[in-house]
Amino acid sequence: MITNTCKLEVSFIDTKFSDLFAMINATTQVKRYATDRITEWKSFSSRYHEENGEYPKLEDIYGFKSIEGLIYHELSKKKTGLSSRSLIATIHSCFLSYKQASKKHSHPNWSDSQPIIMQGKYLNLHHESGNYIVDYPLFSKQYRVEHEITHILRMRLNTKENHHKNILDRILSGEYHLCQSQLKYVKKQNKSHWYFLLAYSHKSEGNPNIDPTRVLGVFMSENVALYASSKRLPMVFKIDGGEIPTFASRQEAIIRSKQRQAACCGDGRIGHGYKTRTKSIYPNKQTLAHFRETINSRYAKALIDFAKTNGFGEVRLEDLKGIKADREFPRFLIHWTYFDLQEKIKNAARKCGIKVTLVSSETIGITCSSCGHIDPNNRDRGVKNRFVCTKCNIVKQTDWNASQVLSSLEI
Ligand SMILES: [Zn+2]
Question: Is 78 helix (H, G, I), strand (E, B) or coil?
Answer without folding.
Answer: coil
